[in-house]
């Protein structure tokens, strides 16, 4: 049974200026305001697995709906999800701007699966078999028949196999920077990312291929829900995927309404001390 995380009520204030710690948050149009009033508790989408595609692409180049872009892994999985996945075990598939941490085979995509903390390489042709093998539980609850509800697409039965994998080598900070999906994410993500790089660098924790190959990587992630809570920040670390840690993190700690001024506090409390900051946390606080 997973234990409850350690919470701190609020985010510590910054103690130094990296150059953009106190950058002014821009004003948004009336229909693109950040919701500063609604409690963040429980605003994170509920899911069972989170699959992150390492694209190496600029987040500003992603179309508004990446799931409709032909030839992409997200689109292929979106096509099959209704017939292959369990409605009781939702799966989130996201793009990341980070490149693959390993050399990817030709015609394959590098993907990280959380909370498993496993790195896979799969092709578009592999998608149905991979989904059946790694994105469905071995057993699941049975749907209750309801004659008044039209049944969704009939789910296919696909043979399963264990795809080769390795541990994801680096912890990550991913900020929702899906600019063409929502202006708030597109504007806020770059200064937040720059601040994380500066603060992690100051603490000698930032990834460097030569000096710190196991360090923290900082990048963008595609739409995860909750534009009104921008900036949205996900802290991926294998410690949050471990069985003895909190269950509802599902491999990452989700924060909302993050600004550059919050970054030093997040690094201090969550990355260094494994504490969850309650005022920013989008998960469930019992």
The amount of helix comes to 10-25%
Uncertain spans, ≥5 residues at pLDDT below 50?
243-247
Cα separation of the termini = 16 Å
Order of helices and strands: EEHEEEHEEHEEHEHE
Strand content: 15-25%
Query: What's the structural domain tally?
Result: 2
Structural category:
alpha/beta
Sheet of most strands: 5 strands, mixed
Instruction: Output the number of helix runs.
Output: 5
Describe this structure in words.
The protein has five helices and eleven strands, in the order ββαβββαββαββαβαβ. The relative contact order is 0.23. The strands form three sheets. The chain has a five-stranded mixed sheet with strand order 3-2-4-5-6, covered by helices on one side. Strands 8-7-9-10 form a four-stranded mixed sheet. A two-stranded parallel ribbon has the order 1-11. Helices cover 19% and strands 17% of the residues. Strand 4 and strand 5 form a beta hairpin. It is globular, with a radius of gyration of 19 Å. The chain folds into two domains: 6-44 and 170-277, no CATH class; 49-166, Glutaredoxin (3-Layer(aba) Sandwich), CATH 3.40.30. By secondary structure, the protein is an alpha/beta fold. The protein has helices at residues 73-84, 127-134, 183-202, 238-241, 263-271, and strands spanning 6-8, 49-54, 91-96, 109-114, 118-122, 166-167, 172-176, 217-221, 233-236, 252-255, 275-277.
């Amino acid at each position: 049974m997973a234990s409850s995380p350690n919470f701190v009520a609020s985010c510590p204030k910054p103690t130094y200026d990296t150059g953009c710690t106190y950058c002014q948050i821009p004003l948004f149009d009336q229909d693109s305001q950040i919701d500063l009033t609604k409690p963040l508790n429980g605003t994170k989408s509920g899911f069972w697995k989170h699959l992150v595609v390492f694209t190496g692409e600029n987040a500003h180049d992603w179309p508004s709906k990446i799931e409709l872009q032909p030839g992409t892994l997200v689109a292929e999985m979106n096509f099959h999800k209704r017939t292959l996945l369990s409605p009781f075990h939702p799966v989130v598939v996201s793009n990341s701007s980070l490149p693959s941490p390993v050399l990817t085979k030709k015609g394959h995509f590098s993907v990280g699966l959380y909370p498993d903390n496993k790195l896979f390489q799969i092709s578009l042709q592999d998608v149905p078999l991979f989904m059946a093998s790694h994105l469905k539980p071995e057993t699941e609850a049975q749907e209750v028949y309801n004659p008044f509800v039209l049944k969704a697409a009939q789910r296919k039965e696909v043979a399963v196999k264990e795809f080769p994998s390795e541990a994801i080598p680096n912890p990550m900070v991913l900020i929702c920077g899906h600019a063409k999906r929502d202006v708030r994410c597109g504007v806020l993500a770059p200064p937040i990312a720059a601040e994380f790089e500066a603060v992690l660098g100051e603490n000698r924790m930032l990834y460097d291929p030569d000096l710190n190959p196991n360090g923290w990587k900082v990048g963008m992630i595609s739409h995860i829900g909750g534009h009104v809570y921008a900036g949205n920040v996900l802290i991926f670390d294998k410690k949050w995927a471990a069985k003895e840690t909190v269950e509802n993190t599902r491999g990452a700690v989700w924060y909302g309404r993050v600004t550059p001024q919050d970054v030093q506090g997040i690094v201090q409390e969550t990355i260094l001390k494994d504490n969850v900051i309650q005022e920013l946390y989008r998960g469930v606080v019992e």
